[in-house]
Design goal:
With 299 residues, the protein is of the alpha/beta class. It has helices at 12-22, 46-57, 78-88, 99-107, 123-137, 153-165, 181-189, 200-204, 224-230, 238-244, 264-267, 274-298; strands at residues 35-40, 61-65, 89-95, 113-117, 144-148, 168-172, 194-197, 209-212, 249-252. The strands form 2 sheets. It has a 5-stranded parallel sheet with strand order 7-6-5-8-9. A 4-stranded parallel sheet has the order 2-1-3-4, sandwiched between helices. Helix 2 links the parallel strand 1 (35-40) and strand 2.
């Protein structure tokens, strides 16, 4: 059974297939009459809307499930919840605190599991990012992405996706907030290389894409003030985008803390593609779901 827990489960050919499916209009209905369970331990705007609309566009019925309705491993085990959903649904999407939760779900092999976000990775975001970049840059191979800020789950999935697509990946952040040696090895296994920069202005020079994310992701709110002080010189502003060049595009996975990691001038500026990026979350969700249905029903 094919699941989608992280980018490194895909081959380059499979990645291209998903992106190609994402650009096709919803002319078929592989989910016609079928349900898709969407479990959210963490709140979401883009992921929930993208997934629900993608399911509808493929003819299916999305069912949104709140964490308090389940009480994973308190009211009922992760395994029993997964088996229950398999009785009703064709696919299970889960946005969870711990990556081990989606791993336990997938290990049962009773229903295809899609990771909608975990503490370790955000592969759905990476798919939307690649579709946006492919649409804007035409060719991804040998293009350069510079990620400014915290080496979080978004950055890790994006770096892996960049390696799979033949792109170059740079990371600029303060000491203590960069990839671990183990994470760099994971990226290398995808064919990618990471250049670590201390100076964000050096990192963005000649970059095709400048990308940032909030300095304190969900679960890190208690570190917000410490991180704000550490990341002060890593705010993406007009001067930084000028250093990248007028052809560079700006991306942000959202939600943005305006005035922290990015200024209004950049987020709302002519080089920003954040709203297209948000829209593409829906298209790549549709492409991924169509691909998973095809993979699991052709075997």
């Amino acid at each position: 059974m094919r699941h989608f827990l992280d980018i490194d489960e895909l081959t380059t050919e499979e990645l291209e297939n998903i992106l190609d499916l994402s650009t096709q209009p919803e002319t078929t209905s592989p989910l016609d009459g079928k349900g898709v369970a969407l479990l959210f331990e963490k709140p979401s705007a883009r992921t929930r809307n993208a997934m629900e609309m993608a399911v509808v566009q493929l003819g299916g019925h999305p069912v949104y499930i709140r964490p308090d309705e389940l009480g994973l491993d308190k009211r009922e085990s992760v395994e029993d919840v997964t088996r229950t959903f398999a009785c009703y649904h064709e696919i299970l999407g889960a946005r969870v605190h711990s990556h081990s939760t989606v791993e336990r779900m997938a290990a049962l092999d009773v229903i295809p599991v899609v990771n909608l976000l975990s503490d370790q990775s955000h592969p759905m975001q990476a798919l939307g990012d690649l579709l946006t970049m492919r649409g804007e840059l035409s060719v991804l191979e040998d293009r350069t992405i510079t990620f400014i800020g915290d080496a979080n789950n978004v950055a890790l999935s994006l770096a892996k996706a960049a390696g799979l697509a033949g792109m170059k990946f740079r990371l600029a952040g303060p000491p203590g907030y960069t990839f671990s040696g183990e994470q760099i090895e994971e990226i290398s296994r995808m064919g990618g290389e990471v250049e670590i920069f201390r100076s964000p202005f050096e990192a963005v020079t000649d970059a095709d894409v400048v990308y940032t994310d909030t300095w304190a992701s969900m679960g890190k709110e208690d570190e917000a003030e410490t991180r704000r002080e550490a990341f002060q010189e890593f705010r993406v502003d007009a001067n930084m985008m000028s250093a990248a060049g007028e052809k560079a595009i700006f991306l942000h996975c959202l939600p943005a803390k305006r005035g922290n990691e990015v200024t209004d001038e950049v987020l709302d500026g002519s080089q920003s593609r954040v709203w297209l990026q948000a829209e593409n979350r829906m298209h790549t969700a549709r492409g991924l779901l169509a691909w998973i249905m095809k993979e699991n029903h052709e075997k």
